Amino acid sequence: MHTFLIMVFIILLADFYKTEVEVKLYKLENCQSAKNLTIMFKFENLITTNNKMLMNYTSYVKEDVTNPISIVVYSKKCLFKDNLDTCEDMPVLQYNRFCENVKKPNILLKEIIYKTTPFIDCPIRKGTYKTVNATFDINALLAYQTKTYFWVTRSEIIEKSTKKLLFCLFTKAQVIFK
């Protein structure tokens, strides 16, 4: 019986990941309070195809970032775009090993790091970084939803020792099942 249930689960999961989705981006911008932060972001474009997002953007680093950093993502999953009362807080995602993983990036960072020029290294040096055709596999996000949701996120880069906010990005998007 357990084997049968496992087989059914695998078949359903495989079918689920064949689902094609589109990402509709409503807002992707530096947070309102981010006027004087160390790292600023300029989004250029996003294309969704075959459950992959292809992204192009430029990052501006105003000064060297020499201390260890933490990347934190706060997100809400909402039923309706225009009614934030329908939102549910999702678990906070915190990534504390960015600099340790730059040399051997994990699957989530690999595309961003290798598609950015000049190469992102630690410490992060002052300058302009251009990311061209970085691909993000949307299938990783599909485990969090079974229907179309509207997502509101705030992504931050924080200097770990001083808790100084270095970067803040606000996003409103929708993952739409086709």
Automatic annotation (TrEMBL):
Keywords: Signal. Residues 1-21 form the signal peptide. InterPro entries: GM2-AP_sf. This is Uncharacterized protein LOC108735222. It comes from Agrilus planipennis. The keyword Signal applies.
